[in-house]
UniProtKB/TrEMBL annotation:
This is FABP6 protein. The gene is Fabp6. Belongs to the calycin superfamily. Fatty-acid binding protein (FABP) family. The keyword Cytoplasm applies. GO terms for molecular function: lipid binding. One of its GO terms (cellular component) is cytoplasm. Keywords: Cytoplasm, Lipid-binding, Transport. It is found in: Cytoplasm. Residues 8-25 form the Cytosolic fatty-acid binding proteins domain. InterPro entries: Calycin, Fatty_acid-bd, ILBP. SUPFAM superfamilies: Lipocalins.
Amino acid sequence: QGNMAFAGKYEFENDENYDDFVKKIGLPSDKIEMGRNCKIVTEVVQNGNDFTWTQHFPGGRTTTNSFTIDKEADLETMGGKKFKATVKMEDGKIVADFPNYRHTAEICGGKLVEISSTSGVVYKRTSKRIA
């Protein structure tokens, strides 16, 4: 708790099971194409338990989720749907239950590792620290 391990900027490095996962959660095919091997830059600002999590997509689109650990927040899914969730911190991982998947994020060896899982499909995205 209270460590600033997440703060920084991370650039997409690789992922696993992208197609299976996005089809399972019902992303439209244009969004699937847009996100495939997309050099997303994730910027995390952390102030104690308060986070601002911004994803910068090529072409200038950004998605920002701001939340406080253990407090309900308004968040947005990969597909742009708004929802409410309480983000938790479990064993150094950020954990959020999205409407149709569970998302975790942790720092492993200086990389940001995000895992989303739904009905047996596990999508893993690894990003390297660039700032």
